Amino acid sequence: MTVIGGQWGDEGKGKIVDWLASRADMVARFQGGHNAGHTLVVGNETYKLSLLPSGIVRGTLSVIGNGVVLDPWALKAEIEKLTAQGLSITPESLQIADTCPLILPIHRDLDALREDASGKGKIGTTRRGIGPAYEDKVGRRAIRVCDLAHLDSLDPQLDRLLAHHDALRAGFGEPPIDREALKEQLREIADFVLQFAKPVWITVNEARARGKRILFEGAQGVLLDVDHGTYPFVTSSNTIAGTAAAGTGLGPSAAGFVLGIVKAYTTRVGSGPFPTELHDDIGQRLGERGREFGTVTGRKRRCGWFDAVLVRQSCAVAGVTGIAFTKLDVLDGLDEIRICTGYKLGGRTLGHLPAHAAEQAAVEPVYETIEGWQQSTAGARSWAQLPAQAIKYIRRVEELIHCPVALVSTSPEREDTILVRDPFSD
Ligand code: IMP
């Protein structure tokens, strides 16, 4: 099965993925890099993961597929941090595709240089070098994990990579790349990464043939997908479920049940259109009650009402089978709750997000208002424990997004979950 974010990321994937990972034989990341941020709370420990699949916390075999861009130094730092928290991360518990492209320091530099030079066109990236690394992959200039075992013959590849980057850097007034220093950095980190390197496509295909349960763990969200999201304010990978197959080396049927994680309201980090964004007390309240600060960058998230137009679109383009509805308790105590059901644009009514960024920024949300609930939903574990109005809200969301609810999550605790349909039993 595959778990993806149904909005702009930060939908609360960590808890759901952890819960599902405890029942999976293998957890696989298939896109993105250490721009992601998953927080897992297990007992008294809080684990913050960026690059590693969530299975690593419970010792489930974790794989990083070819679709991920890998920063070797970030990998090492994350492993060291988790090891200090008592986890054991070994080649038996972690495999990394030998075809993963590397994020190098020059990618991080370029990400920051571009953002700083972009004025109002700034994307608001995580500055982790994700975009530049994917560009080099597609441009056939990337240094990959397998190259770390062949550093003595890297020069022809470096010629191509450096010719490209030196020209870009010159445009920013930066000095050319120090080739020998870069090689030395790679030499120092090579063995650490290579101990985990494997042809991951074999691992996942064998697991599938043996009927093992593979959990594909998406990062970011559908609205940040490079094709289907709010371009150009997106990340540089495909975040939809289909990428699970291409990003690990399996056929297109690999995704299985697609669980879209959807928050009961909307948030976004970074720049870009956000039709239902709230700049008032309610927006402030959602941010505070929902603790809406980025796991990776600590940035404050923008908050707004639930946008059924966007989520309907996400569920359609990503092929979502059912959603996990999260953070419902953040809406507790509101007198009224609004749901965006359509957009107005220059006298027209739209049922989808237009493609052009300027139109996306200009659409006016059309709202439906429903009465809120005053009781607490926090910790509910069955429908019977939810106030009638909360159930009405969930049912209306299902209707508007054309997709059923499979799970409702009512607190960060694993057990505080209402299971409607088990994604693993499909
Ligand atoms: P990049 O992925 O660092 O290039 O950033 C591109 C956009 O995606 C920015 O708006 C980021 O804030 C956003 N983004 C990247 N990763 C995440 C994530 O894990 N959660 C939420 N937003 C993200």
Automatic annotation (TrEMBL):
<keyword id="KW-0963">Cytoplasm</keyword>
<feature type="binding site">
    <location>
        <position position="37"/>
    </location>
    <ligand>
        <name>Mg(2+)</name>
    </ligand>
</feature>
<comment type="similarity">
    <text>Belongs to the adenylosuccinate synthetase family.</text>
</comment>
<dbReference type="InterPro" id="IPR042110">
    <property type="entry name" value="Adenylosuccinate_synth_dom2"/>
</dbReference>
<feature type="binding site">
    <location>
        <position position="140"/>
    </location>
    <ligand>
        <name>IMP</name>
    </ligand>
</feature>
<keyword id="KW-0479">Metal-binding</keyword>
<keyword id="KW-0342">GTP-binding</keyword>
<feature type="binding site">
    <location>
        <begin position="9"/>
        <end position="15"/>
    </location>
    <ligand>
        <name>GTP</name>
    </ligand>
</feature>
<feature type="binding site" description="in other chain">
    <location>
        <position position="299"/>
    </location>
    <ligand>
        <name>IMP</name>
    </ligand>
</feature>
<feature type="binding site" description="in other chain">
    <location>
        <begin position="35"/>
        <end position="38"/>
    </location>
    <ligand>
        <name>IMP</name>
    </ligand>
</feature>
<feature type="binding site" description="in other chain">
    <location>
        <position position="235"/>
    </location>
    <ligand>
        <name>IMP</name>
    </ligand>
</feature>
<feature type="binding site">
    <location>
        <begin position="409"/>
        <end position="411"/>
    </location>
    <ligand>
        <name>GTP</name>
    </ligand>
</feature>
<dbReference type="GO" id="GO:0044208">
    <property type="term" value="P:'de novo' AMP biosynthetic process"/>
</dbReference>
<feature type="binding site">
    <location>
        <begin position="37"/>
        <end position="39"/>
    </location>
    <ligand>
        <name>GTP</name>
    </ligand>
</feature>
<dbReference type="InterPro" id="IPR018220">
    <property type="entry name" value="Adenylosuccin_syn_GTP-bd"/>
</dbReference>
<keyword id="KW-0547">Nucleotide-binding</keyword>
<feature type="binding site" description="in other chain">
    <location>
        <begin position="10"/>
        <end position="13"/>
    </location>
    <ligand>
        <name>IMP</name>
    </ligand>
</feature>
<dbReference type="InterPro" id="IPR042109">
    <property type="entry name" value="Adenylosuccinate_synth_dom1"/>
</dbReference>
<dbReference type="InterPro" id="IPR001114">
    <property type="entry name" value="Adenylosuccinate_synthetase"/>
</dbReference>
<dbReference type="GO" id="GO:0004019">
    <property type="term" value="F:adenylosuccinate synthase activity"/>
</dbReference>
<feature type="binding site">
    <location>
        <begin position="327"/>
        <end position="329"/>
    </location>
    <ligand>
        <name>GTP</name>
    </ligand>
</feature>
<dbReference type="GO" id="GO:0005525">
    <property type="term" value="F:GTP binding"/>
</dbReference>
<feature type="binding site" description="in other chain">
    <location>
        <position position="126"/>
    </location>
    <ligand>
        <name>IMP</name>
    </ligand>
</feature>
<comment type="subunit">
    <text>Homodimer.</text>
</comment>
<protein>
    <recommendedName>
        <fullName>Adenylosuccinate synthetase</fullName>
        <ecNumber>6.3.4.4</ecNumber>
    </recommendedName>
</protein>
<feature type="active site" description="Proton acceptor">
    <location>
        <position position="10"/>
    </location>
</feature>
<feature type="binding site">
    <location>
        <position position="10"/>
    </location>
    <ligand>
        <name>Mg(2+)</name>
    </ligand>
</feature>
<dbReference type="GO" id="GO:0005737">
    <property type="term" value="C:cytoplasm"/>
</dbReference>
<comment type="function">
    <text>Plays an important role in the de novo pathway of purine nucleotide biosynthesis. Catalyzes the first committed step in the biosynthesis of AMP from IMP.</text>
</comment>
<keyword id="KW-0658">Purine biosynthesis</keyword>
<dbReference type="InterPro" id="IPR042111">
    <property type="entry name" value="Adenylosuccinate_synth_dom3"/>
</dbReference>
<feature type="active site">
    <location>
        <position position="137"/>
    </location>
</feature>
<comment type="pathway">
    <text>Purine metabolism; AMP biosynthesis via de novo pathway; AMP from IMP: step 1/2.</text>
</comment>
<keyword id="KW-0436">Ligase</keyword>
<keyword id="KW-0460">Magnesium</keyword>
<feature type="binding site">
    <location>
        <position position="301"/>
    </location>
    <ligand>
        <name>GTP</name>
    </ligand>
</feature>
<feature type="active site" description="Proton donor">
    <location>
        <position position="38"/>
    </location>
</feature>
<dbReference type="GO" id="GO:0000287">
    <property type="term" value="F:magnesium ion binding"/>
</dbReference>
<feature type="binding site" description="in other chain">
    <location>
        <position position="220"/>
    </location>
    <ligand>
        <name>IMP</name>
    </ligand>
</feature>
<feature type="binding site">
    <location>
        <begin position="295"/>
        <end position="301"/>
    </location>
    <ligand>
        <name>substrate</name>
    </ligand>
</feature>
<dbReference type="Pfam" id="PF00709">
    <property type="entry name" value="Adenylsucc_synt"/>
</dbReference>
<dbReference type="GO" id="GO:0046040">
    <property type="term" value="P:IMP metabolic process"/>
</dbReference>
